[in-house]
Amino acid sequence: MQIYKVGGAVRDKLLGLPVKDNDWVVVGATPEQMKNKGYQPVGRDFPVFLHPETKEEYALARTERKTGHGYAGFSFYTSCDISLEEDLLRRDLTINAMAEDQSGNIIDPYGGQDDLKSRQLRHVSPAFQEDPLRILRVARFAARLAPLGFHVAEETFELMRNMVKSGEASHLVPERVWQETSTALMELTPSVYFETLESCGALQAVLPEFKPFIHSQTLQHLNLAAQANSTALIRFGCLFIPLLPQTEAAKINNILSIQAITSKLRPPAEYADMALLVTEHSDRIISISRSPDAESLMSLFEATDALRRPERFTCLLTILSYSFETIKLGKNQIIELLNDCLAIKARDIISKKIKGKAIGEAVRKNRLQWIESKIHQKK
Ligand SMILES: Nc1ccn([C@@H]2O[C@H](COP(=O)(O)OP(=O)(O)OP(=O)(O)O)[C@@H](O)[C@H]2O)c(=O)n1
Fold this sequence. Notes:
Blueprint: E1 2-6, H1 8-15, E2 23-27, H2 31-36, E3 40-41, E4 48-50, E5 57-60, E6 62-66, E7 74-78, H3 84-89, E8 99-100, E9 106-107, H4 112-117, E10 120-121, H5 133-145, E11 151-152, H6 154-165, H7 174-185, H8 191-200, H9 202-206, H10 216-227, H11 232-238, H12 248-265, H13 269-290, H14 294-303, H15 310-321, H16 331-343, H17 346-349, H18 357-378
The structure holds cytidine-5'-triphosphate.
């Protein structure tokens, strides 16, 4: 049996990028031989094994044949006589279809190294069209590698357009769409993911609910969040910063689109929650940052439950800070005021004379006075 390193590890090493995990292909072996050597079988659909010590994935060389629609509509054929070249031929992009043998030689039958040099994301064979997930993968690789000068090859782009036109793209299951999209958010220039999907028609076909939110300004905010190394939640939230001034009708439409995104893609609950908070409160947060006043800030803390959920509020402010322009009160100052308010507690101010509801009112008054004095000092 011969063992080769394949896929992302070979690509990233040649690009001088850090290698995240190694994938291996085994040629000329049977599942029984693998098990006898101590490899643990894990593949449900095709034979993949975990190395007994490193736990890295070792897949038997295989070919694929389309049997139905979508990502799962494939049958796989593995046998001892499948060659490395046949296994590499079934892969998506030439830069992902290279292998390295155990002496460090690169096996590159489909021009991956040339495409690395000319910065092209190019499909390996027409079989590319059989897997609609590849549209999202190409957009994701474009988002990752655009800063290095990569772009989608014209003929690959043409295939992607055809896959959308033929309806193949609409067979993608929402779970995979969310998986690719949330991974794409964490790439270096996530804007490129949405731009690529938009220009081949896949945004409309696969993520139509996102369409109202994808425009140059939100994509700019998204990239700023990526440059600041923000979390996926913050990057996601940036997509929902509305164009100002936001009409009431636009706000309602945005809320409906967010509900549609949530019920279709089922992102974690905190994502939907954050998208709604951004839509709901962006106008007033931006207006407070421009002309701060104590009562508005206090009502904002109350409306967003900031006093009980300060971390969530900090995330919300971070998202909106990407759209702050002329500000008098910045994100850090607002957070400082929130922390000051949190430090003013009922037990510090209650006297024997006030009881019940009046305690809460006294705490609020104290907090308000504090914010007022701080804002006054800053003016
Ligand atoms: N729909 C897919 C999924 C995967 N692959 C192939 O399987 C390899 C491993 O897939 P994966 O781990 O998802 O991608 P990586 O290239 O390793 O990328 P990443 O850096 O994102 O892990 C890819 O390089 C590619 O050759 C493919 O051709 N088509």
